[in-house]
Protein: DNA-binding protein
Amino acid sequence: MQHYNIRELRLAKGWSQEQLATIAGLSTRTIQRIENGHQASLETLGAIAAALGMQVCDLTRQAPEQTAWSAAELAARRRVENEGLLLSKLLRFVILSLILLAINGITQPQYWWSLWAIGAIGLGLVMRAARTLVLRDALQRWQTRRLAQKLKQL
Structure:
């Protein structure tokens, strides 16, 4: 959602919403909606920017704390998604292991060949769990530190 600093710019000029609406050729209700956070069309923003004597891009404001929070939220979402994928892999591993043990018990109960397959698949699952739960973003942190070291050397 886009945030506009129209209210601050309007108050800096000492204008009321009605005055800005009249100069921009818009309704007062449109100005009220935009100032309350509703989305505005490009034509409306262009009219307001012209009335205020500036460019359309000057009407938008970016909240840096919101951007930082969004990055943290995205990282948390990615971690939760990876943990969910790990749990689904664990569930598939358990089901596949039970199926392999059942097939092995029916066909060749004297030699438990299914344990080799279960062990190999389990090893892959342990590696995935280590990457997801323990290492997480260790490689990315290392790359960031290494890049900082290289940039200091320049």
Notes: The two ends are 40 Å apart (CA to CA). The mean pLDDT is 88. The longest strand covers residues 3-4. The chain is about 75% helix and 5% strand.
